[in-house]
Amino acid sequence: MKFGETFKEYLRGDQEWFLDKVSHVEYKRLKKVLKSCRRCKALHEGNSTIDQTDGEQQQNPTFSRFCQCQPCPVCDQMFFTELMREATDIAGCFSSRVRHLLHLHVPRGMQRYVLRLRQCFKNDQQALVEEGLMLIEYITMNAIAIRKILKKYDKVHSSANGKNFKSKLRAEHLELLQSPWLIELGALSLNFKGSDDGEAFIQFSGSFSCNLDEMEPVMTLMLPHSIKLEYNLKCAICLEIVFNPYALSCGHLFCKSCACSAASVMIFQGLKASSPDSKCPICREAGVYANAVHMLELDLLIKKRHKDYWKERAIAERAEMVKQSKEYWESQTKYVVGY
């Protein structure tokens, strides 16, 4: 079965009630744009060889004016503008849905007490698993749709514009399968796998694995359609398994303490206190700290799998926070009194 038919069945399947509330790639409509452009190109190429005088091609002025398909400004404007909007909407829908899902599993503050009280009357874990499955399939199907349509664009136009656009999505952090929220979903599935409900979550977490070997800690996600993703869980600064991890908007993972040190801010101030000019220690991209994602599920997974390591790092980070806080307030006091 061709992907277009598979994608069509997916949109009309059992999850239709869910997909009506979220954005998705208009695969069928974008494919029609490419078909129209292909016919236009075929007519143009066929017409260019009708009249030849002394080896020179004479083109019909109508085709010359409206059917210049390499590049094709009309197709480009319709195609890439629409696809960028769709990719942005999908990434936004996915992140907001996953964030809401994770808040239900790892609540904080007052929400924790409310949900604990609610669990006395209703267990929402199975509902969380089902929504997690839908979100994984949602992001996977749309990522494949974008990849397929860009590949088809390059084939129709004999160009690399589709490949370049894919690079642009990656540069603007809209590459769907590189979202840190996908790592959080993988960690969520593995946390469910080790829960008391065990067997109920095998389907959800059976294709995911996490090797926390100190040399090469890796999380592996096997997504639908045989897509395999691997995420390195080693902090590039301290060269240990990430502790209290944050994902910068460029996608790189760091321990909170290491990221704060790289941005020249104190741990208790947090990453949002960093300067807008602070750069990622790996890719050197600026402005990536403002929208950093706190990886709560990943931290919980490491805490469960590596209890001694997590406890040791927690004690060390707490001591460093107390030390930095003391130095900070001492310097503030000296500044106020004029020393």
Automatic annotation (TrEMBL):
SUPFAM superfamilies: RING/U-box (SSF57850). SMART domains: RING. The keyword Endoplasmic reticulum does not apply. Gene3D superfamilies: Zinc/RING finger domain, C3HC4 (zinc finger). Residues 1-167 form the SPX domain. Residues 235-284 form the RING-type domain. Its EC number is 2.3.2.27. InterPro entries: BAH1 (IPR033326), SPX_dom (IPR004331), Znf-RING_euk (IPR027370), Znf_RING (IPR001841), Znf_RING/FYVE/PHD (IPR013083), Znf_RING_CS (IPR017907). It catalyses: S-ubiquitinyl-[E2 ubiquitin-conjugating enzyme]-L-cysteine + [acceptor protein]-L-lysine = [E2 ubiquitin-conjugating enzyme]-L-cysteine + N(6)-ubiquitinyl-[acceptor protein]-L-lysine. Pathway: Protein modification; protein ubiquitination. Keywords: Metal-binding, Transferase, Ubl conjugation pathway, Zinc, Zinc-finger. CDD domains: RING-HC_BAH1-like, SPX_BAH1-like. GO terms for biological process: protein ubiquitination. One of its GO terms (molecular function) is zinc ion binding. This is RING-type E3 ubiquitin transferase. It comes from Gossypium hirsutum (Upland cotton). The lineage of its organism: Eukaryota, Viridiplantae, Streptophyta, Embryophyta, Tracheophyta.
